[in-house]
């Protein structure tokens, strides 16, 4: 890939002094929709992600070509970082630069930049966060800004919240900045304290399956779920003095049923129980109890389906089909409403599980899913 990036950069910009970078995607193994509720999440960085090659210019222009989104080099200035509805992919680049500048860091010169990804777009594997952290890391590296990795994650979250307009938590950016090969991170989203948990799956493999459904409603529904959790907090915080929904005790959850509408109660129940599943998952993996972890994954999906209502026929069909075909555990990952499922599969059954799942899903949904055999990778870096 590095050789390919160098060739494309030379072809586009007529220069051979570019530095190649890699920013991974991520999969959240468990702990869904609780990173904006102060909970624990359990993601790992992926061996699929976003590659970039960049070199400084001697003027304030950014010249970028993004494969496959660009038809020609796209140009903008450091002092004109505004959204462009005709080239919305570039908003993530502009927003990342703006986030750096807004924190008081100095960037005097622009860059020539070529980008190419191996992540499926709109699949719930954080292609947008991968791009954000790639840009933040490139500008940090080329300008010796000395931004530490937790701060890079915070800057990436600012891009989503303040520039793009999505009320996301910090999980995606944090794991992409801080990932470690063969590990997942147990992250406390309230304090940003984290543990690297070894992810040695022994005779199991990690499988990601893309529904290949376009997630047109994802952002609007994400913001809707965010607001529902805020509504719950507005009622429960004065009553129980809780910091966030994830800190609800079992007794408080039971008492809240009479205080909340049915919908808001079910959203709250998902958050509180998902927090418990995430903590138990880290303990299970530490102890080498893979089957217990797999069962918790499947329970998480059922909560996301029934209480949080963010799955849909494609995700539900994939999970049911994977389990029927021999997967040990499976759940949706990401915002939902399409996107991907993550599953644990015994390695010697991997090919057969994929074959059966592909055939059944095609028969029920009408088009094929895509399969990715993934391993946990390091966070964003120069390569």
TrEMBL record:
GO terms for cellular component: cytosol. Substrate binds at residues 32-35, 222. Pathway: Carbohydrate metabolism; galactose metabolism. GO terms for molecular function: ATP binding; galactokinase activity; magnesium ion binding. It comes from Mariniplasma anaerobium. Belongs to the GHMP kinase family. GalK subfamily. HAMAP family: Galactokinase. It is an enzyme of class 2 (transferase). InterPro entries: Galactokinase, Galactokinase_bac, Galactokinase_CS, GalKase_N, GHMP_kinase_C_dom, GHMP_kinase_C_sf, GHMP_kinase_N_dom, Mevalonate/galactokinase. The lineage of its organism: Bacteria, Bacillati, Mycoplasmatota, Mollicutes, Acholeplasmatales. Catalyzes the transfer of the gamma-phosphate of ATP to D-galactose to form alpha-D-galactose-1-phosphate (Gal-1-P). Gene3D superfamilies: 3.30.230.10, GHMP kinase, C-terminal domain. Its EC number is 2.7.1.6. The active site is at residue 172. It catalyses: alpha-D-galactose + ATP = alpha-D-galactose 1-phosphate + ADP + H(+). The keyword Acyltransferase does not apply. It is found in: Cytoplasm. Residues 7-55 form the Galactokinase N-terminal domain. ATP binds at residue 66. Residues 92-179 form the GHMP kinase N-terminal domain. This is Galactokinase.
């Amino acid at each position: 890939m590095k050789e390919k990036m160098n060739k494309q950069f030379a072809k586009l910009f007529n220069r051979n002094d570019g530095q190649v970078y890699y920013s991974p995607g991520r999969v959240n193994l468990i702990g869904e929709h609780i990173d904006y509720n102060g909970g624990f999440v359990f993601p790992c960085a992926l061996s699929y992600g976003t590659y970039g090659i960049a070199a400084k210019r001697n003027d304030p222009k950014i010249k970028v070509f993004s494969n496959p989104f660009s038809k020609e080099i796209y140009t903008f200035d450091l002092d004109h970082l505004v959204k462009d509805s005709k080239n919305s992919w570039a908003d993530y680049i502009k927003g990342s630069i703006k986030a750096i500048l807004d924190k008081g860091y100095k960037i005097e010169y622009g860059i020539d930049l070529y980008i190419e990804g191996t992540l499926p777009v709109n699949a719930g594997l954080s292609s947008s966060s991968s791009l954000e952290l790639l840009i933040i890391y490139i500008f940090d590296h080329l300008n010796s800004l000395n931004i530490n990795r937790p701060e890079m994650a915070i800057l990436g979250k600012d891009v989503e919240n303040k520039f793009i307009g999505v009320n996301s938590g910090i999980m995606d950016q944090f794991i992409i900045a801080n990932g470690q090969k063969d590990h997942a991170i147990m992250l406390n989203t309230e304090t940003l304290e984290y543990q690297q948990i070894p992810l040695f799956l022994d005779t199991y493999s990690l499988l990601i399956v893309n529904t290949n459904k376009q997630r047109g409603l994802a952002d609007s529904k994400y913001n809707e779920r965010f607001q529902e959790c805020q509504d719950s907090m507005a009622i429960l915080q004065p009553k129980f003095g809780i910091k966030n929904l994830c800190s609800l005790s079992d007794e408080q959850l039971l008492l809240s049923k009479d205080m909340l509408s049915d919908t808001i109660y079910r959203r709250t129940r998902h958050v509180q129980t998902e927090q418990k599943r995430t903590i138990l998952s880290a303990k299970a993996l530490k102890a080498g109890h893979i089957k217990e972890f797999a069962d918790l994954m499947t329970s998480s999906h059922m909560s996301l389906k029934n209480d949080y209502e963010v799955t849909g026929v494609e995700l539900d069909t994939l999970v049911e089909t994977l389990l029927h075909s021999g997967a040990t555990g499976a759940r949706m990952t990401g915002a939902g409403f399409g996107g991907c499922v993550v599953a644990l599969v015994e390695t010697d059954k991997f090919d057969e599980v994929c074959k059966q799942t592909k055939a059944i899903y095609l028969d029920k949904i009408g088009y094929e899913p895509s399969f990715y055999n993934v391993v946990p990778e390091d966070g964003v870096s120069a390569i």
